[in-house]
Write a structure and sequence with these properties.
The protein is mainly alpha-helical and 463 residues long. It folds into three domains: 91 residues, Fumarase/aspartase (N-terminal domain) (Fumarase C, Chain B, domain 1), CATH 1.10.275; 244 residues, Fumarase C, Chain A, domain 2 (Up-down Bundle); 105 residues, Ribonucleotide Reductase Protein R1, domain 1. The protein has 19 helices and six strands. The protein has a two-stranded antiparallel ribbon with strand order 1-2. The chain has a two-stranded parallel sheet with strand order 3-4. The chain has a two-stranded antiparallel ribbon with strand order 5-6. The protein is elongated, with a radius of gyration of 31 Å. The model has no long low-confidence stretch (mean pLDDT 97). Bound molecules: arginine. The site of arginine has 10 residues, from helix 6.
């Protein structure tokens, strides 16, 4: 069944029907399509464009169609061009020809734009709720691991000691910004396109303000061509999604490295790891790897919609039907990943001793020694040089800096011997190295704790 047979003499080719149909994916919009139609029918009746009785009939028919869909009574073959056609056909089956009045002052072009905005509005809120849960978990873990020292890396080379808490809080802030990005995206999603009609608006005395209020929109599109053509809100959504999965992928990469025997910093809970069909000893971080792998696919969806839109003249073009599957796939995957991650992080075993042991090897306190000498009046550049030499010496001797005895320091640097005293070993202690970095945003437990307390309040206010 088609909504446009009148002008045609022949049936469309079967393959054309199949190729043209979006039903197999846009069926998931049925609830939003019907909610939008109910609001539209109410408006048509309120404004007298259709009669009150007609409005009531249409609304009760639409509710019956929705109930039938939910009860699985409506088959979703490719017999319909899209979800809008399917709903309208079943509506007229239920209530007769009056069902045909629903589409007054409306086009599928503004209808589908409306459906996608209603759908995305709900999904963004759901994804934000999942992000909030992840943020809570990160805060809780960060609170627990305030004193757990681990190596901080640059270039994946041991650099300076940090706390695990501080490391996790870095991810907290990434995901917090993602939350805020979606919040901002919502402003552009939550704009009513309905009333743009096919492309030029309508001659009927519709009440767009009323529909906007009825459906909870913050504003109304004020150019009908733009109203039916705008998919920026989808690009933005996918842009945020691509950033979220990028952040998840970086975290995944760390989990993967940390579970390796070479690092051995964490062990994933059995419920969040998998095995090998041939190597009995294996315990693999598949979830983290698959998350890293899904990243390419979600970036792909962003590139796809950007490319789909780049050459489109105004207004609606059928190319725009391609705005959906990437969004749906992105949401399906992110919803799954964001449900798994909090528990995977909560249940993983942290090997504190291994982390701390690693932070003690590899001269992570070298900067602290240079800072110490600089604080005593030696220009930092010279202090850097001195410590560099000391590191070279330690490497040759198989020592760490704190294992060089005092008299050895003095004979290595006779000109500077007055600067070397027992105090030095205090500065080389990695706990002190961490505690000392108490500048705003630094890794010291006191500073990290201050930030955690502040952010707990933020999460509380945004839940
Ligand atoms: N299935 C279409 C889409 O998703 C609905 C709008 C179709 N409009 C049209 N005039 N063919 O974009």
């Amino acid at each position: 069944m088609k909504l446009w047979g009148g002008r045609f003499k022949k049936e469309t080719h079967q393959l054309v029907n199949e190729f043209n149909s979006s039903l197999k994916f846009d069926r998931r919009l049925y609830h939003y399509d019907i909610a939008g139609s109910i609001a539209h029918a109410k408006m048509l009746a309120r404004t007298g464009i259709i009669s009150r009785e007609e409005g009531e009939k249409i609304i009760s028919g639409l509710k019956m169609v929705e109930a039938d869909i939910e009860a699985g009574k409506i088959p979703f073959g490719n017999t319909f061009e899209d979800i809008h056609t399917l709903v309208e056909k079943h509506l007229t089956d239920k209530i007769g020809a009056v069902g045909g009045k629903l589409h007054t002052a409306r086009s599928r072009n503004d209808q589908v734009a409306l459906d996608m905005r209603l759908y995305l509005r709900d999904k963004i809120k759901h994804l934000q709720a999942l992000l909030i849960h992840l943020l809570e978990v990160l805060l809780r873990l960060a609170e627990n691991y305030l004193e757990v020292i681990m190596p901080g890396y640059t270039h994946l080379q041991r650099a300076q000691p940090v706390t695990l808490s501080h490391h996790l809080m870095a991810y907290y802030f990434m995901f917090k910004r993602d939350y805020e990005r979606w919040e901002d995206n919502l402003k552009r999603v939550n704009v009513l396109p309905l009333g743009s009609s096919a492309l030029a608006g309508t001659t009927f005395p519709i009440d767009r303000e009323w529909i906007a209020a009825e459906l909870g929109f913050d504003s109304i599109s004020e150019n009908s061509l733009d109203g039916v053509s705008d998919r920026d809100f989808i690009i933005e959504f996918l842009g945020v999604a691509a950033t979220v999965i990028m952040h998840l992928s970086r975290l995944s990469e760390e989990l993967i490295i940390w579970t390796s025997s070479e690092f051995d910093f964490i062990e994933l809970d059995d419920a969040y790891a998998t095995g090998s069909s041939i190597m009995p000893q294996k315990k693999n971080p598949d979830i983290a790897e698959l998350t890293r792998g899904k990243t390419g696919r979600i970036y792909g969806h962003l590139m796809q919609i950007l490319t789909t839109l780049k050459g489109l003249p105004l207004a609606y073009n059928k190319d725009m039907q391609e705005d959906k599957e990437g969004v749906f796939d992105t949401i399906d995957n992110l919803e799954m990943i964001l449900q798994i991650f909090p528990e995977m992080l909560t249940t993983m075993k942290i090997k504190k001793e291994r982390m701390e042991q690693a932070a003690r090897k590899g001269f992570l306190n070298a900067t602290d020694l240079a800072d110490y000498l600089a604080s005593k009046g030696i220009p930092f550049r010279q202090a850097h040089e001195v410590v560099g030499k000391a590191v070279l010496y330690s490497l040759e001797q198989g020592l760490e800096l704190n294992e060089i005895p005092l008299d050895q320091w003095r004979s290595l640097f006779p000109d500077l011997s007055e600067y070397f005293s027992e105090e030095l070993y205090d500065y080389l202690d990695i706990k002190k190295c961490v505690q000392g970095r108490s500048s705003i945003g630094g890794t010291s437990p006191s500073e990290t704790e201050r930030v955690i307390i502040k952010e707990k309040k933020w999460v509380e206010d945004n839940r």
